[in-house]
Amino acid sequence: MLTISNLTDRPVLLAFNSGQTLRLSPRSSAGEIPEVEIVNNAKVAKLTALNIITVEEAQQQRHAGGGTRGGSSKATDSDEASGRATASERPEKSAKRPE
Predict the structure, then answer these.
(1) Rounded to an integer, what is the distance from CA 11 to the centroid of its chain?
(2) Is 43 inside any structural domain?
(3) Domain tally, the chain
(4) What percentage of the chain exceeds 70 in pLDDT?
(5) Given this model, what pLDDT does residue 32 score?
(6) What gap in Å lies between CA 41 and CA 47, rounded to an integer?
(7) Is residue 41 part of a domain?
(8) Which of 89, 56, 93 is nearest to 74 (CA)?
């Protein structure tokens, strides 16, 4: 996977090999672009040569503790810092409705 970054103060429109297009806002990046989308792409090569965009290998974020995508019942530092209640601190919901 690749990351494409717009280095200019103007929006950039890229057409990928599959026919899909990508609009990059000024000074923004788009990650997780498959390499096959830009290989032998004349527009990407031209914009890279003109220093309008950069194409870099995407940095994948890896989390410690396994590769599952499921939720965790553990509180994170960001939860504590934001003041959000963790699952164990939330009040239980009652199934009964008041009459």
Answers:
(1) 19
(2) yes
(3) 1
(4) 60
(5) 85
(6) 10
(7) yes
(8) 89
User: What are 26-70's pLDDT values in tens digits?
Assistant: 999 988 889 998 899 999 999 999 999 999 887 765 445 544 455
Q: Looking at the domain assignment, is residue 65 inside a domain?
A: no
The number of residues making up the chain comes to: 99
Task: Give one DSSP letter per residue of 44-82, joined into a string.
Answer: HHHHHHTTSEEEEEPPPP--SS-S--S--SSPPHHHHHH
Could you tell me if residue 72 is inside a domain? no
- Domain containing 12 equals 2-57
pLDDT for residue 37: 87
Rounded CA-CA distance 94/8 in Å is 55
Residue 59 backbone phi and psi in degrees, to 5: -90, 120
